[in-house]
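In the laboratory, one determines a bound structure by crystallizing the protein with its ligand and collecting diffraction data. In a computational setting the workflow is compressed into a single prediction: the sequence and the ligand go in, and a structural description comes out. We illustrate the idea with adenosine-5'-triphosphate.
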Amino acid sequence: MTKTRIIALFNQSGGVAKTTLTQNLGYHLALKKRRVLLVDMDPQGSLTTFMGLEPDTLSESIQQAIVENKPLPIYPELIHGMALVPADINLAASEMQLFSAIAREYRLKNALAVVKDDYDFILIDSPPSLGLLSILSLTAATHILVPIQCQFKSFKGTELLLNTVSQVRAHTNPTLQFAGFVPTMFDSRTAQESRTVKAIQEQLSDIGTVYPPIPKTIAFADASEHRLPLALFDKNHNAISVVKKIANSLDKLEVKS
Ligand SMILES: Nc1ncnc2c1ncn2[C@@H]1O[C@H](COP(=O)(O)OP(=O)(O)OP(=O)(O)O)[C@@H](O)[C@H]1O
Ligand SMILES: [Mg+2]
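The predicted complex, in C-alpha cell form:
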C-alpha cells in the first residue's frame, strides 16, 4: 500500500491560489477514489469558507489540536467527497500560545499521525507567512507544492522559500520532498507572464516538477463564492483539465522513508 502523501501547499506570498488549489486538487483526487483530508492551517479560514462552513460558528478548529493536543477535529461529513479539518481566527493566537512549548514544530505532525492511515492524501493549506504555522505545516508534510503567480516579482520570492525549505530539512523534516511548482493565474496574452513561466521552468525544474500553468480566470473566484470546486460549478471550463493533470501527477508521488 502506498503511504499517505501529506502535501503542504506553501508560498509565503499572499493570494497566489494556495487555497483554491488545495480545494480543487483535493476534489480531483477524491474523484479518483482517493481518500482525501484537507487541513486548513490559515487563521483566515479561507479553505473552511470555500468548503461551505462558517469559520465564526465552529465549535472546534485545528487550533485546539495543535495547542491543546486534542484529537484532530475532522468535520463529521465529507464535503464534495473530502474530509476537512477547519480553521478559524483563534488559530492566529496559536503562535503565541506555543511560544514556549517544547518541540512545538511537531504539533501538526503528531496530530496527523493518529489519523493519517485513514487517508491516501492529506492536503495542508498554509498561511501566507514564514511564521510558525507554516513551519508546522512543512514539518508535517511529506511533500511541498508551491503555487507561483506568473509575475516577475513573485518569482523572486522563491529564493526565500527555497531557503525556508532547506531550514526545515536541516532541523525538523529531513525527508521533505518537492511535489513541484504550479504557475498560477497565467495570462497567455501577456508577454511578461510567458517569459516568467519560461524562467520558472528553466530555473526550478532541477528542484522539482514544474506543472503546466493554470490559466487566469474569474471562474475560480465565482466557484469559491458558490462554495464549490470549479468542476462542480462549471464542468466544461478549460482550466479543469490542467488541475486534473496536476492531480494525476500528485497521485504518482511516492513517500521517502
Ligand atoms: N487561476 C486563477 N485565475 C484568477 N483568479 C484566481 C485563480 N486562482 C485563484 N484565483 C483567485 O485569486 C484569489 C486568491 O486565491 P486564493 O485565496 O486561493 O490564494 P491564497 O494563496 O490561498 O491566498 P492567501 O495567501 O490569502 O491565503 C481568490 O480570489 C481566487 O478566487
Ligand atoms: Mg489561502
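The pocket of magnesium ion (ligand 2) is lined by residues 18-19, 42, 46, 125 (CB under 6 Å). Keep in mind that any predicted model is a hypothesis to be tested, not a measurement.
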